[in-house]
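--- STAGE predict ---
source: upstream dedup step, 1 unique chain passed
mode: sequence only
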Amino acid sequence: MCRLLTRVFAGGAALSLSGCLLGPDYARPPTPEPEAWHASLGEGLSPASPERAALATWWTVLGDPLLSDLVSQALDRNLDVQVAHQRVREARQRRAVAEAGLWPTLRGRATVSPARTSHARSQATGLEALWNLDVFGKQRRTIEAAEGDRGASEEDLHSALVNVAAEVVQSYIDLRTFQAHLGIADANLAAETETAQLASWRAQAGLTNTLDVLQATADAAQRRAQIPSLRASLEEAKNRLALLEGETPGALSSQLASAQPNPSAPPEVAVGIPADALRQRPDVRRAERQLAAETARIGAAKAEAYPTISLSGAVGTGVIGPATFTSPQSITAAAAAEAVQVLFDHGAIRATIKGQKAVRGEALARFQSTVLAALNDVEAGIIEYREEQQRERGLAEASASAASAATISRERYAAGLVDFQVVLDAERSLYSIEEQRVSSQGRVIADLVRLYRSLGGGWSAET
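--- STAGE serialize ---
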């Protein structure tokens, strides 16, 4: 009898594994991949394909050891990254559950019932097996769908890594930019206070009027009033960095207390070609994996319209006694096959298939939209990084000239050669240009962050 069970289940295995697969087989749809970027790369950008290892740790090109440590710690400790890790583990287990459904389920059974006499009880044991054969590929398509979902969850993890790395660098740049603004405000406050004192001395000597003193004092007071707002923004940037690191507010205050200049952009950034970005970007990869999953689910839905074939079998013993394991007659076996076919369901299966085709069409449109958005994102990143670099160079030249003009105007006012309004205009111009220059320096790095983010930098297959 046991040989009968073996033959039945061996035949079932051959039938299940060689059965047909319903529904469309997935093929990655073509994507628009221009040979080069439409935007002119300009100085500092190269069409060379970025090395994967360098792209995975792109923030190291800024040459700031503290920043590199902050990014590494955030990638380990950030709670959004931890959530993404757990979702990957969940998706992998769901895939394992789907694969387990391809094979038989084996259960043990034991029963004990009161005997007819007071000296014995009736006992029986056995094994039961149930196997839903995958003749029409429903389970194999379900496994394909689970594999697509697993891939999508892994790309969500990659997206989390990309976003956290970029946000840490951006927050760090914001912090250093606020520190620079505070330094400028303090320096200008000192200069304007000195100018107000100079005007006061000249007024006491009868060389100028009270209006000059009032104007200089007002400028100094206005500058002093801007400092608390800058300090508040600085503290918010510190706390934002602490949050990204998985720390409480204020945890990084001592580490970031000393003011440091913003890191400088590297002399050259390799942006590659559009095909490189589409292969690297996690959002594009996720949309493609989700499309594969929804394509597989069409086949699983179609299989519902075909018979469900299952095999069952059992091996067991009757009453347990001294002869149970020595007498073949005490062991029994049975096998059965069952086929179930839906005959009428008011069109439910047909509607399910059509609905899944619509879901697949939605996934295809989302994939195509994600590809176009990715290409546009990189194009915008190239333009902004290129143009901001030129703006920063122009502001640096203007700042040097404005500083000389402010110095000369104060000297000439002290000598009584120019009107006080000339001094005020020169100092206001210098402060405005210095503010713009510092903001532009931070913006150059911020645009570099966006560019690397648009290229999908911040993860590798090893992570």
